[in-house]
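fyi for ur records
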Amino acid sequence: MSLRCVLGVLAGSCVAAVSNAQWVGPAAPDNRMKYEGGPVFVGASGLTTTKFGVIESAPGTRIIGSYAFIGTPGNGSRTTALWGETNNPKGRALQGFNFSSADSGDSNNPATGIWAETASPTGQGLRARATATSGQSYGGYFDNASSSGTAVYANSSAVSGFSYGIQVTNASTSGTAILASSTASAGVTTGVLGTVLSSDGTAVFGSNTSSTGTSIGVRGRVISSTGYAGYFEGGRNYFEGNVGIGVGSPSTVLDVFGSSTTGLIYGANTSSASGNSQGSGVAGVKGTITSTSPGSHAAGVWGIVPATAGSQGYGVAGYHNSNGIGVAGFVASTSFGAAVYGNGGATSTTAYAAVFDGRVFVNGTVAKSGGSFRIDHPLDPENKTLSHSFVESPDMMNIYNGISSTPILPVTLRSPCPTGSPPSIAISAINSPSSMRQTAAGLSPRLFVK
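which gave:
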């Protein structure tokens, strides 16, 4: 049988072959068709570097240049319809190339270099594997030169079921299932981009199924000191469980740890709206206890300075840059409650429940168990003070009591306060106009004040 007749039967067309293509007939192993020496062309010649080539101008529709089919053997062995193999370190065992530069206009039938398809419910349309046990090998490598193209595009067209566009697994203890790298040094590039159209969908989902250890579902890292390991735009963010910033094992819903000269948490509210009730206005930071019967010492906002020595720092501080209020407290109780509560310590004799530096205005009734106040000495405020006790009176006055030091006249009064100055001088400096009432005590009825 001639070469032309054999291929004419198989391909339904004429065969053109160069003279050095040798057809080995029934003598070939298992009576299979075999060519030695090629090249062989079906259609027209011209591919001088090709051992077997099929060229067809495709005047009709759905033309297949080369077709291979292998059925299922009775013993269930694995079969291969098309096998490519090479031992060249720069070789390609199988390559498909579509050099059309036109848009097909059909999203279901785009220009395709290699098309793989399977109808099996557990099949794989395309499978690539790198068997090297060392080195930087790739099971699949995809490259795209278009400024708006996509190197890898996967589409799961199933309208139901738990399907995947891409499923990647890696069994290495230090491996990476998916490595995406954008090598451009400028521009708004993206290593991994996930998009979804479903109103209940998830663009990017990370799941770690380990039930032990410090496993991580999604992790982001940047080298730049001004970069963002995670950046979220629009909508809302939801975290289930404790969230730690600067701490690996958060013990509260939001646990923040770090060192900053300006504060670890900063809340800035740009709204200028007014609240319609106390506690409903805009806030930079707001803490709320939702329980209607909270326990003792419950607080919407707690501020703690755990210093064991020194007097610097504030547990809670408020500052108003204009004529407003730095710290405000409100209570809605009609029977008992305190808008602001201070406790200097039950056992302390030197701590204060409240310290006010400046004028104090009270609009209402003041109830107290006792009272005293201390002021700077008017003549030596840097080094001395005057301590006073006070009682309620309708008259605005200070009362100073003194005892004469000798019955010999003239008399010089001695102040009971540790001022070191005659009381008349100190009193005149504090009160204006001032007056003094003195009573003689002793044997002499005569008293002269100098």
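Confidence is low (pLDDT under 50) at residues 1-20, 404-421. thats all i got for now
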